[in-house]
Q: What sequence folds into this?
């Protein structure tokens, strides 16, 4: 599937109806999500025919994009059941199969690498300090091929240091920098939207 077609389809997905501040529920927009999944497949062959997990899937934009790019099997995991309801409707509307699982990523007790690839837009850790690194630690335990993740560009050096020193990754590279539009979902945002720079990372466990 072409990038523009993928982006167009993702633009039709429903997003959080009642976003929860404490869970940092802002959607991974179609522009960012399509580029993440397209790059993962076209540059590295990490999606098509692979078992893919979408961590903190929310409305499942990344998981559905993986299914549209013909992943063999997709599992979306989120701590919030309302988001999983929206994810389920989105998958039905797109006529793709994804398994949805209600779980706290921190409590995910999968043993060993059960999936090929993890794709994720974790909470940035603004409301729950350190949750971004908890996601990364768990993702690296369960993926055999690669982990794709979005993190604020301001945290680049920290992420690289921790991934190499504490999580023992074979490779940690920033594939590109993207503009991430966080809509004014919350009262404490004064502007209509906040445009932040995020890094698209690829980690090899
Ligand atoms: C930035 S949003 C990701 C949005 C998603 N990619 C989408 O497009 O809808 C972060 C997601 O992580 C979920 N989340 C936050 N803390 C979590 C945890 N401890 N375990 C699992 N999911 C969590 C939130 O509910 C939210 O859906």
A:
């Amino acid at each position: 599937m072409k990038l523009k077609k993928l982006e167009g389809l993702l633009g039709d997905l429903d997003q959080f109806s009642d976003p929860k501040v404490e869970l940092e529920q802002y959607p991974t927009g179609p522009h960012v999500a399509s580029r993440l999944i397209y790059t993962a497949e076209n540059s590295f062959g990490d999606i098509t025919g692979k078992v893919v997990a979408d961590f903190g899937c929310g409305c499942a934009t990344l998981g559905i994009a993986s299914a549209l790019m013909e992943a063999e099997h997709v599992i979306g995991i989120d701590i919030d059941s309302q988001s999983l309801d929206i994810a389920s409707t989105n998958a039905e509307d797109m006529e793709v199969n994804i398994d949805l699982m209600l779980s706290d990523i921190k409590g995910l007790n999968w043993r060993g690498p059960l999936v090929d690839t993890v794709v994720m837009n974790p909470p940035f850790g603004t409301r729950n300090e350190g949750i971004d690194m908890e996601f990364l630690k768990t993702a690296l335990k369960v993926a055999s091929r690669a982990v794709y993740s979005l993190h604020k560009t301001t945290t680049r050096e920290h992420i690289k240091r921790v991934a190499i020193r504490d999580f023992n990754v074979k490779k940690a590279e920033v594939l590109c920098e993207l503009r991430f539009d966080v809509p004014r979902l919350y009262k404490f945002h004064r502007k209509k939207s906040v445009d932040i720079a995020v890094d698209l990372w690829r980690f090899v466990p």
